[in-house]
Amino acid sequence: MNKNRFMNKYILVFLFCVLGLVSCGDKNKIPTNEIHYTTLDNEVLPLENLLNFGEGRIVSNNYVQEKNLCILKFDKEVTQIWEGAFYGCSNLASISIPPSVTEIGRFAFSDCSNLTSISIPPSVTEIGRCAFSGCSSLTSISIPPSVTEIGKFAFFGCSSLASISIPSSVTKIGDFAFEGCSSLTSIIVSKDNKVYDSREDCNAIIHTDSNTLICGCKNTVIPSSITEIGSSAFSECSNLTSISIPPSVTEIGRGAFYGCSRLTSIFIPSSVEGMGYHAFSACSSLTNIVVSKENKVYDSREDCNAIINTESNALICGCKNTIIPPSVTEIGEGAFFGCSSLTSISIPPSVTEIGHSAFFGCSNLTSISIPSSVTEIGHSAFSRCSNLTSISIPPSVTEIGEWAFSGCSNLTSISIPKGCEVEENTFLDCPENLVITRY
User: Fold this and answer.
1) What does the pLDDT average to over 389-400?
2) φ, ψ of residue 127 in degrees (nearest 5)
3) Which of 3, 73, 407, 413 is most buried, most CB within 10 Å of its CB?
4) CA-CA distance, 354 to 84, in Å (whole number)?
5) What pLDDT is recorded for position 52?
6) Contact 218, 184 (CB under 8 A)
7) Lowest mean pLDDT among 57-71, 299-313, 408-422
8) Contacts by residues 334-339 (CB-CB < 8 Å, ≥ 24 positions apart)
9) Helix and strand element counts for the chain (H, E)
10) Among positive and negative, which fits the CA dihedral 169, 174, 176, 180?
């Protein structure tokens, strides 16, 4: 009899659980009309800082002491974190999203600089553009296996993020999604993913069909099957000190290694046929640049410590140790961009053009002599060369581009030929006492 009573009780409890008449599930499960969060000071986020929750209306926003968290309550089920909803909430420390949400909108948590953790429910299918950009304190993120799309710049500038794991469900990753995640040491793609992979435990995200590496980190080892290093693949990876580019690579995308400030040397194999602008810009620690002598498109002639387009004789990438060969006719776009360790450079009389942003941000460049062969100085060519004090433009120059010397905060004198066309804002943010002499 006792046994029957026990069984009856067990069956009743089971039925109650199945029917939802008693709570047998997760006690921490969030109601679908609530968002739970914590702040640095246990104060609620001001309502004027909370934007764009669609049709939902905020009913209450209170700190619950016994739970040590804040509860944001709505008059209806929350299905989307709308565009810019928590944008710039720097006091936000952590947040839990209800299981009814399917989309995290653009800029939803952008610039929440003290956000350290977030719980994304398995209902979410899309993480929007810039959704977590600038969340510089975010150390980890769990992307649930329901997510199919990660938007452009989604985690841009999440400089404390140490690891990422891409589930099998993800079929689209937008450009620059993980750019500026400088603390990344581990990147894993599910082996069941049909679009992306991290073959050979390479610590990178690779687009499988095209063999393009789209995201790397300081521990990446580029597999020998890779044919392209995508745009911004290692951009702002400031902890990257060395990288080996395999002889299978034919293309290095725009800004591929931009801002890799600790990278000291690069070797371009013979297989590389294309290289985007700013591929190695702002790599301020570069001291050694070598191109394979077998390369048919680029060279580093005369051990010049630079990359030169062989056919056009344009120098497209230099470093602090570059010596410009006398056969070079053009300093290409962004050739020395962000080369803050460059203190001086000699431009040979073969050069006729100084390209756009050629010496942008060369903050320790103190002087430069422009030869009389130069006819054009591109826009932003010497912008933010903050230690440049004086410069003489030769009479051969007929055009100086916009912002060419903007931000040259110590420039006190410059002489320009009368026949030279000077664009607007050429001297923007230069000293008020700058003396411009026309001759």
Assistant:
1) 96
2) -110, 115
3) 407
4) 41
5) 56
6) yes
7) 57-71
8) 334/277, 334/278, 334/281, 334/358, 334/360, 335/306, 335/359, 336/360, 336/362, 337/278, 337/281, 337/282, 337/361, 338/259, 338/281, 338/282, 338/283, 338/284, 338/362, 339/282, 339/283, 339/284, 339/286
9) 1, 31
10) negative
What stretches of 285-342 show up as alpha helix (H) in DSSP? none
What is the number of residues in the chain?
439
Please report where in the chains the tokens 């977590």 appear, as a residue.
132
pLDDT digits (tens, 9 = 90+) for 350-385: 999 999 999 999 999 998 999 999 999 999 999 999
The whole-number pLDDT of residue 76 equals 87
pLDDT of residue 29: 77
Identify whether 232 is part of a domain.
Answer: no
Residue 22 pLDDT > 70? no
Residue 434 within any structural domain of the chain: yes
Return the biggest CA–CA distance within the chain.
114
| Last residue in a domain, options 184, 217, 247 | 184
What's the per-residue H, E or C state across 357-425? CCCCCCCCCCCCECCCCCCEECCCCCCCCCCCCEEECCCCCCEECCCCCCCCCCCCEEEECCCCEECCC
- The C-alpha atoms of residue 13 and residue 24 are separated, in whole angstroms, by 9
Torsion of CA 152, 153, 154, 158, to 10 degrees: 160
**How far separated are the first and last CA of the chain, in Å rounded?**
114
Rounded mean pLDDT, 255-284? 97
The pLDDT of residue 7: 44
Count of beta carbons in the 10 Å neighbourhood of residue 5: 9
Q: Measure Cα distances from 89 to 57, 79, 127, 131, 400 in Å.
A: 19, 21, 18, 13, 43
Give the residue numbers spanning the domain of 355: 329-439
- Among 16-20, 283-287, 435-439, whose mean pLDDT is lowest? 16-20
What is the C-alpha separation between 135 and 349, in angstroms, rounded?
A: 48
Question: What 3-state DSSP class applies to 47?
Answer: helix
CATH of the domain at 74: 3.80.10.10
Residue 301 lies in a domain: no
Query: How many C-beta atoms surround the C-beta of residue 264 within 10 A?
Result: 13
Where does a domain end: 164, 184, 204?
184
pLDDT at 27: 42
